[in-house]
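Protein: L-threonine dehydratase catabolic TdcB
Species: Saltatorellus ferox
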Amino acid sequence: MKATVSDVARTAQSALVTIRPLLPITPVREALALAPDGSLFLKMESFQPTGSFKVRGAVNRIAALSEEERAAGVVAASTGNHGAAVAFAARAAGVRASVVVPVDTPAGRAEAIESRGAEVIRFGAECGEAEAHGRALAERTGRVFLSPYNDALVMAGQGTIGLELAEQIPDLRRVYVAVGGGGLIGGIGCALKDVKPGVEVIGCSPEASYPMHASVAAGRWVDTPHLSTLSLATAGGLEEDTVTLNPCMDSVDRWELVGEADISRATYELITRERMMVEGAVGVALAVWQRERAAGVAAEGSSCIVVCGGNLDAQHLRTILAENVEVKP
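Structure follows.
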């Protein structure tokens, strides 16, 4: 059955009650270096205990486990934010968690998962193989496999961001959200449209990987190529049966693409001008806002960029600095 905007918004309201004991409201701050007129706000999901918005969905999903499911434990597959989120939420709930990562996952990423109490299992050469192994492990052991986005309760957890924004920025006109599997923007879009239907929700994707953008345009799931991108958090494919497609089609007003040079520059400006460590996915959303600001599209009212995460790898930081720092002779 197709989930409506009201359905997702209603479950987001319930999720807000569920997550609040563990996850306080994240702040918004003015981005005065980028917009001295005070028209741009940043929703600081990088302040979450795992450094990313993903923990909202994980806490909400694990809270809904039955007693039998809690006793069996959960399995996830991730090389980053989702794995850390599942580890955090599972430990808080007293639930055993295993996270499957590709064999060559950097030690720091694996440590971020393991240090929060989850078992890390290294398997496969890439994310698809790790996920297949995780799903097989969950089925074999009778445990619940937790998707990073293809789950209505995960999407509802991410939608709590929209409910907070509606209260935090009374004159909010538009919100820019980086898009991967659609759980974040689908949740935010539905929650906002229910309480503030006039707010424009803009989906932002890298030109190198845009499965939800393409699927919405086609009105159905489509497969797309995936090239290398600084926006690791949004990279990758879309499951054919994803529950996020219809909410994204119904609640997102516009879809925009940006290139790697613009993503790199925008991320660099957040790091150097706003003095914050952010992931490349945040640069995707900022790059779209900057383009629209220059064109006069974002000239009226307040805009907000969701700072979806702050877990920037050292190798990507080096790349961003190398591409943008001007070396004087």
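Remarks: The mean pLDDT is 94.
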